[in-house]
Amino acid sequence: MSPTHTAQLMDGTGLARRIVEETTAKAAEIAQRTGVTPCLATVLVGDDPASVTYVRMKRARCAKAGIQSRHIGLPATTTTAELVDTLAALSHDPQVHGILLQHPVGPGIDERAAFEAIAPEKDVDGVTMHSFGATSFGLPGFESCTPGGIMRLLDEYGVELAGKHAVVVGRSPILGKPVGMLLLAQDATVTYCHSRTTDLQAIVREADIVVAAVGRPRLIHGQDVKPGAVVIDAGYNPGNVGDVDFDTARTRARLITPVPGGVGPMTIAVLLEQTVAAAARQLGMR
């Protein structure tokens, strides 16, 4: 790339807006045909300021999309068994169509046990082992929202994945691992990297598509981006900083997501879309 090259920005905000508009119309159709408003239950343990803000924002987005939200706030002293009971009760409640457990849930709780208490048909955040299995095997189910949003962005910008080398930096069960499975399903050749990867920079330099999802600010530097690569920054760190050094990476990449305004809006849009889809299925609509 020339010294004056600047990558095209992948506008997650605009695409998310269109998805939410379609979702709002679908929610209205469900309400009109069945008399039932799609409902998302949000569960928050403790009062972590960031988590409180995220939940409030998601509930506000629900309201704008015509989705009812039911919030359950639990004290920080909540045990794993108490949280599992709460999630199981919501799973059996026919008036609730989707369940979101805000994570992280705190050091005293077995997060995986809590996730597994969510019924697969209501796992609109795509956090259960059932959802991961469905993603991996290409079966019907709900995708983890951030990976699902990333794939929608790649499709929106016409990124060819078949035969391309995709490097995923991060291996979390709700971001790194499932996005790799989704890329593999589109015939990309996928390499997973993580905190113990030897010579990460050398592997990133070979990538046609880079997905940074490790939660370390500016871990990926521009000089390590292959000229013409597509860079997806799924990291969000204090100060609106991603996992990619945006200013240097955009001089070499062909496409790049900004932080904020790239992956973040897509995550919420997919959550709302999957909540409405869950309601439609549970109500017997096609």
Automatic annotation (TrEMBL):
Q: Could you tell me the EC number(s) of this protein?
A: 1.5.1.5, 3.5.4.9
| Keywords annotated in UniProt | Amino-acid biosynthesis, Histidine biosynthesis, Hydrolase, Methionine biosynthesis, Multifunctional enzyme, NADP, One-carbon metabolism, Oxidoreductase, Purine biosynthesis
**Which InterPro entries would you find in this protein's record?**
Aminoacid_DH-like_N_sf, NAD(P)-bd_dom_sf, THF_DH/CycHdrlase, THF_DH/CycHdrlase_cat_dom, THF_DH/CycHdrlase_CS, THF_DH/CycHdrlase_NAD-bd_dom
What superkingdom does the record give?
Bacteria
Q: Give the pathway.
A: One-carbon metabolism; tetrahydrofolate interconversion
Gene3D superfamilies per UniProt:
Leucine Dehydrogenase, chain A, domain 1, NAD(P)-binding Rossmann-like Domain
Domain Tetrahydrofolate dehydrogenase/cyclohydrolase NAD(P)-binding, chain residue ranges per copy: 144-282
A GO biological process of this protein is: methionine biosynthetic process
Q: Which GO terms describe its molecular function?
A: methenyltetrahydrofolate cyclohydrolase activity; methylenetetrahydrofolate dehydrogenase (NADP+) activity
List residues binding NADP(+). Answer: 170-172
Span of domain Tetrahydrofolate dehydrogenase/cyclohydrolase catalytic: 10-125
Asked if the Swiss-Prot or TrEMBL record annotates the protein with the keyword Flavoprotein, the reply is no
Question: What's a GO cellular component annotated to this UniProt protein?
Answer: cytosol
Q: Which reaction does it catalyse?
A: (6R)-5,10-methenyltetrahydrofolate + H2O = (6R)-10-formyltetrahydrofolate + H(+); (6R)-5,10-methylene-5,6,7,8-tetrahydrofolate + NADP(+) = (6R)-5,10-methenyltetrahydrofolate + NADPH
Complex and partners: Homodimer.
Its biological purpose:
Catalyzes the oxidation of 5,10-methylenetetrahydrofolate to 5,10-methenyltetrahydrofolate and then the hydrolysis of 5,10-methenyltetrahydrofolate to 10-formyltetrahydrofolate.
Task: Tell me the HAMAP family matching this sequence.
Answer: THF_DHG_CYH (MF_01576)
Protein family: Belongs to the tetrahydrofolate dehydrogenase/cyclohydrolase family.
This chain's protein is named Bifunctional protein FolD
